[in-house]
Design a protein that fits this description.
5-stranded mixed beta sheet, two-stranded antiparallel sheet, 47% helix, disordered C terminus
């Protein structure tokens, strides 16, 4: 067995150990890699030994595949063809489990569509793969589960930047082994997921790291082609419903601000207004006028002067205008049966609506100072 204390005491020794471990995982010699890590943790006991103990491969899993398949479909709807998936263990996360940075690639960065696994692995030996940073889309769809104890030990270790030295802290050996334990278990989980789940088409899944630890890159191919159309549609429908709900919630925040402004202004005295109250009314009227113009709505007087019935009719039309007269609203609600019904004919000319212009190309703004807080 390798004398880890001696090997990890030098920069060259650390590089050699990393190359050896990466080679075992790339060649899928998982048992050999696990035995080396287990033996090292036993000979150099630390908190990492306890964290990695009794953590079998089947305890680690990767979720979020349906979300990822939907992301692939969304990218391809824009005319791109995804030919590879990248998963990087991230060193820029402080959650409970290791974090994945997920990227989608096409053949502009590497000929993934025709490459064999050996072709790809040949690029993974040294730092700086040809596709690095050249993805066509990035997301965080995938999640890691089952490695919380190891990840907590890694992130809590204070000497993770220790330089190679014969006098380095003893737990540093456990720290290095625990990093490779994470690489190993994630690689095993990924291989199992691909075997049982499959992918929409033949494509490699590239596993690597981004400032997580020693340089590591490998690739696995899915032998199984799965029909993902049903789950993609389900995810798309759920995302649409969630986006619509967020849109409507933001518009309702605006509605609440209109109500608050109206209530505040109507609480002012009828016969005498202070300079501050006059300024507040002018401020609210200016914001309202500008927003209604952007939405293609007209009022012949400020909304706070409307009767209760007129005001509620105005708010119905305001909600509908956000759905019909903004790009975000049209994209979310085009052809939707959930569009609010048009209001009944107005009881007075107060709410005459102008022809609706081209939509504003913005999402609903955040509330901007209605009520007394705007002063």
């Amino acid at each position: 067995m390798i004398d880890l204390a001696e090997q990890l005491a030098s920069a060259e020794g650390q590089r050699g150990f990393a190359r050896h471990m990466a080679g075992l995982i790339r060649s899928m010699e998982f048992e050999s890699a696990a035995a080396l890590i287990k033996d090292g943790l036993a000979k150099h006991p630390s908190s990492f030994s306890f964290a990695c103990r009794n953590l079998p491969p089947e305890q680690v899993r990767i979720s979020g595949w349906d979300e990822l398949f939907a992301d692939i479909a969304k990218v391809e709807a824009r005319g791109k063809i995804c030919t590879a998936i990248g998963i990087n263990l991230s060193g820029h996360h402080e959650g409970d489990e290791p974090y994945f940075e997920v990227a989608l690639y096409d053949d502009s960065s590497f000929p993934f569509a025709t490459a064999t696994r050996d072709d790809i692995l040949a690029q993974c030996e040294d730092y700086g793969v040809p596709w690095q940073g050249r993805f066509i889309d990035g997301n965080t769809a995938l999640r890691c589960h089952g490695l919380a104890s190891v990840f907590a030990a890694l992130t809590g270790y204070e000497h993770h930047d220790a330089q190679p030295d014969p006098g380095m802290p003893a737990p540093f050996i456990g720290f290095k082994l625990a990093q490779w334990f994470v690489y190993l278990r994630v690689a095993q989980a990924l291989k199992q997921e691909l075997a049982s789940r499959g992918l929409p088409r033949r494509m490699p899944v590239l596993l690597g790291e981004h400032d997580f630890g020693d340089w590591f890159a490998t690739a696995y191919m899915s032998a199984r082609i799965a029909d993902t159309s049903a789950v993609v549609d389900q995810v798309a429908q759920r995302r649409l419903a969630e986006s619509r709900a967020r849109f409507d919630a933001t518009v309702e925040e605006q509605v609440d601000m209109y109500r608050s402004a109206r209530e505040t202004i109507n609480s002012f005295g009828r016969f005498f207004l202070s300079e501050m109250e006059k300024s507040h009314i002018d401020f609210c009227d200016t914001i309202q006028t500008n927003e209604l113009k952007r939405l293609g709505l007209q009022l012949d007087r400020p909304s706070w002067k409307l009767s209760d019935r007129e005001f509620e009719r105005f708010l119905d039309r305001y909600r509908q205008a956000w759905r019909e007269n903004t790009r975000a609203g049209r994209e979310l609600f085009a052809g939707a049966s959930v569009t609010p019904p048009p209001p009944p004919p107005p009881v007075s000319p107060t709410l005459a609506t102008a022809p609706l212009p081209l939509a504003a190309t913005m999402a609903p703004p955040r509330p901007r100072g209605f009520g007394r807080k705007g002063l």
